[in-house]
Structures are given as C-alpha cells and as structure tokens.
Amino acid sequence: MVSLQENRNFMTLEERIKALSLLGKAIKELKGDEFEQLSQRIQNNNSWFTPEHTRSAFQALALVLEEGQIRDWISKYKLDDEPEPRNIGILMAGNIPAVGFHDLLSVLISGHHASVKLSSSDKESIQWLVDKLCDIEPRFRRAVTFEEMLKGKDAYIATGSDNSARYFNYYFGKYPHIIRKNRTSVGIFNEQETVEDYKGLARDVFQYFGLGCRNVSKIYIRQSASLNAFLDSIGELNFLSSHHKYLNNYDYNKSIFLVNKEAHLDNGFLLLKESEELVSPIGVLYYEFYQNEEDLKQKLELVKDKIQCIVSKDAWYEGSFPFGEAQCPALDDYADGVDTIAFLKQLS
Questions:
Q1: Which end of the chain is less packed: N or C, by CB atoms within 10 Å?
Q2: pLDDT tens digits, one per residue of 146-180
Q3: What is the pLDDT of residue 2?
Q4: How far is the C-alpha of 296 from the C-alpha of 278, rounded, in Å?
Q5: In 10 A of CB 101, how many CB atoms?
Q6: Is the dihedral of CA 348, 145, 119, 26 positive or negative?
Q7: CATH pick for 184-322 out of 3.30.1380.10, 3.40.309.10, 3.40.640.10, 3.40.50.2000
Q8: pLDDT of the residue at 1
C-alpha cells in the first residue's frame, strides 16, 4: 500500500473530474461480449444480480458520471485542489449491483485514499469499475486498495443492517464515521393514479427484486379499490416468478399467510398484506390506510428515520419522487440523508 505522503498531490481536482467522467463514458460503451462476460461473473457471484439488473445499475451510474453532473454536484463544496489526504475505510453493502460505488466516488473526488472492504455479495462489479477507472487514469491505483481488515484508518464509512451497525459503532465509533442502518422506501396513493402510475410504482417495488433501500416495501392508500387496480395493472411482470430465489420467497410467505389464515391479496407473484410494519419480505408488499394528508404526515413522521425515499404520482407529496424514479437518485441524494462530501471535506 502506498503511504498517504506518497499519495499526496497525486491528482488535481480537475484531473479527478475528467477521469471519473471518462469512466461514465466507458460504462455507456460497455456492451456485447464484454458486458455479457462481466454480467455473467456478477451473476455467478450472486444469483440475485441478473444481467438486466446489472445493466440497470450500470446505466444509472453512467448518467450521474457525466462531467456536467459531477461538476454540478461538487460545485457547492469548494473542494480543495490538493487536499490533505486521509485514509478512509469503506465497508460496502452488497444488496444491489455496485451499490457501494457512490461512497468510493465521494472519497476519490474529495482527494482522499479509499481502503475498501468489498461485500462478498458484490465483488465483481466494484472490481470492474475500479479496474476500468485505473486503466483510464493509472494514478488512481495509488488511491484505492482492497482490504479484508480495515484497521487504523482516519475515518470510516460503513453500510449494513441495524445489527451490523452496532458492530460498526463498537469498532469505529471513536473515529470520524458515517454508519448507515436499514432503510426502505414507501409509496403513496391519492386515488388519482393511472395504469402508467401503477406500472411506475411496480418498477420501484420490483427492480433488483426489492433488495435495495430505495425499493418500495409499503404503500399508503385511501381506498382498498386501489389495491386491485394496482394488481390488475402489473400482470406483465409475472416473469418474476421464473427466478427461483424470488419464487422461493414468494411461495414461503404465501404459505405462512395461508397457514396462519392471514388476509392478503395475491396475483400469482406478489402478495399484498395490510400491516403497520414498514419493511415487507421479498414477494410481499405491505399497505396501510390513511384518512387524510395530516394523518399521513403523522404516520410518516413516526418512521422517518427508516425511510430512504418516498414516491407518489407526479411527486405530489412534498419531498417525494415520481412513481418509477426511486432508483434514479442524483449524486447529492445521499443515503440516510448524510452528506458524504461535507463529512469528507471537514477531515482535511
């Protein structure tokens, strides 16, 4: 590993921007045999990560890595051209393809060194992205290392479950840190939805099989008729049941509901169940009734620390995304609402 002193001043901010934007172009050009081989390696490492989901994740990365997007993102921070570099330990999540790349991007654009512990569930995508970036700009090889034990770093960024967050706090709490816990996303119906709105919500529910924190796991509704309208609108997604892991989860949860005689709706690949809980199992979407907007605000206020994003028709609800855009965050739409760049900037 190269020392931080050797790493210092290795690239200007302008050079970092240019290299990262070229990575975005390389992702856009990823196709044919190269993409097929990469997506197969990713799926072999984690069978939840289908080639379609890898393509979706990489396309989303390519969009935010456009040079203009990067410049707009960092413009408000007044980043130092040659910062005092710090060694940042990143413990990455692995619930969807390349989910940990934003943390790595934040560390690199800030001029720090990234010591990365990959998730066993998502090794191939991050490795490919780093290799490609280093091919574009070899000096980045001095800024990224992959490690199994992240000891003695200057600061830490760790993403995991509520249980793992307690572990992270125990080991890293005395250092500057960002430690993220479980989050999920919700949808809101106001009874003005169209078939296209329902299909957009379905993307928010099912993309990446519902494994991401930006996947909708619960909807808030005014009338039960919305549930049947939603199920009737998404029948074309019945191919989900051909994925063995998804089908196993759906079948298991259906059997539990049947054995326990719990009321639910079922369209053959998705179960709808009324619940005050927030995080539904795979293959299940929870719903809860609300009386009016004030009642809805009160319900959401109680769980705000567990919600990553909200979706609604044409983003009518304050602070929400339109249906179908939950998985399209901007670079400054930070996980858990914690500004990663501001955190890194104050370390210098």
A1: N
A2: 999 999 999 999 998 888 888 898 889 899 999 99
A3: 42
A4: 14
A5: 21
A6: positive
A7: 3.40.309.10
A8: 40
Beta-ladder partners of 322: 312
- Asked if residue 6 has pLDDT above 80, the reply is no
Contact indicator for 346, 334 with CB cutoff of 8 Å: no
Domain boundaries, the chain: 4-182, 184-322
User: Per-residue pLDDT tens for 26-51?
Assistant: 999 999 999 999 999 999 999 999 99
| Greatest CA separation for the chain | 65
Question: What is the Cα–Cα distance from 196 to 192, expressed in whole angstroms?
Answer: 11
Whether pLDDT at 9 is above 60:
no
CA torsion sign for 239, 241, 128, 335 is: positive
Number of Cβ within 10 Å of residue 28's Cβ equals: 15
- Classify burial at 54, counting beta carbons within 10 Å of its beta carbon; exposed 0-12, middle 13-18, buried 19 or more: buried
Cα separation, 203 vs 215, in Å, equals 9
305's enclosing H/E stretch is none
Instruction: Please check whether the domain covering 4-182 is classified as CATH 3.40.50.720.
Output: no
Q: How far is CA 341 from CA 169, 190, 334, 337, in A?
A: 21, 36, 9, 12
pLDDT in tens, 175-201: 999 999 999 999 999 999 999 999 999
**C-alpha 35 chain-centroid distance:** 21
- For 274, the token pair is 């009324």
Indicate the Cα dihedral angle 255, 256, 257, 258, nearest 10°.
50
Q: Which of 140, 325, 302 is nearest to 214 (CA)?
A: 325
What's the CA gap between 213 and 24, in Å, rounded? 23
